[in-house]
Specification:
Strands 6, 7, 8, 9, 10 and 11 form a 6-stranded mixed sheet that branches. Strands 3-2-1-4-5 form a 5-stranded mixed sheet, with helices on both faces. The protein has 2 domains: 118 residues, ATPase, nucleotide binding domain (Nucleotidyltransferase, domain 5); 67 residues, no CATH class. By secondary structure, it is an alpha/beta fold. Helix content is 26%, strand content 28%.
Length: 221
């Protein structure tokens, strides 16, 4: 029997969820809703779920959803996971949040779509439950043309009204239970690769930074 204790956090979506599992068996779970204050709203349910960990037991793994979604929520989840991992002497693995969508493994290919801002949209296939990263970033006309060629369900974490008119897409969310299933479906070798990969919040492109108009000062060296 697998006695590993696994904590899974999904805080990159509005309806955040936490799961504590012993191997494949869910031991406890919590949920809360938060728009912009995940750093405050997370800790009461987190404290409650960790209190259920049997005495003298330690977490073996922590899985966390990295987005795309709420960038702040993803960063809060990652930072929290890393802090808990230090206490328990375990490692953290990050998974793309679209792998936690309910029913994702039931479709050979599911298409994750969304507004990438600045007049563009993203398109990312999730094949047999695995997100194919990085996503495509496309201007509206190219996005519509490519999407028309895609067979299978289309899902988004945002309101479909953010997408071009006529796009047939379902608003959905990710769950900690879904991420746990995605993790357990991987081979030990695949899991080890993820555990050795730095856990970072998912971003579609580097942040837009306005460069200073001031001339750089000369440096004597």
């Amino acid at each position: 029997m697998n006695t590993e204790w696994i904590l899974t956090l999904e805080t990159s979506v509005t309806h955040a969820t936490l799961v504590l599992a012993r191997g494949r068996e869910i031991f406890d779970q919590r949920a809360f809703s938060s728009e912009r204050s995940q750093e405050c709203d997370l800790f009461a349910p987190l404290k409650s779920i960790l209190a259920g960990l049997p005495e003298a037991q330690r977490l073996s793994r922590i899985i966390v959803g990295t987005g795309p979604g709420s960038y702040n929520g993803a960063r809060v989840g990652i930072a929290t996971a890393q802090a808990i991992a230090q206490t328990h002497g375990c490692r953290v693995a990050g998974l793309c949040s679209f792998e936690g969508v309910p029913g994702v493994s039931e479709n050979e290919t599911l298409w994750a779509v969304g507004d990438a801002r600045r007049g563009s949209y993203f398109l990312m296939p999730v094949i047999e439950g695995r997100a194919q990263i990085p996503p495509l970033l496309l201007e509206e006309n190219d996005f519509l043309a490519r999407l028309g060629e895609c067979e299978g369900p289309k899902v988004t974490f945002e309101s479909p009204t953010r997408l071009p008119e006529g796009v047939d897409c379902t608003e959905t969310h990710s769950t900690a239970e879904g991420l746990l299933k995605s993790w357990l479906a991987r081979s030990p070798e695949e899991q080890e690769i993820l555990l050795n990969t730095p856990t970072e919040a998912f971003y579609l492109r580097p942040p837009h930074i306005t460069k200073s108009k001031k001339s750089p000062r000369s440096h004597p060296f």
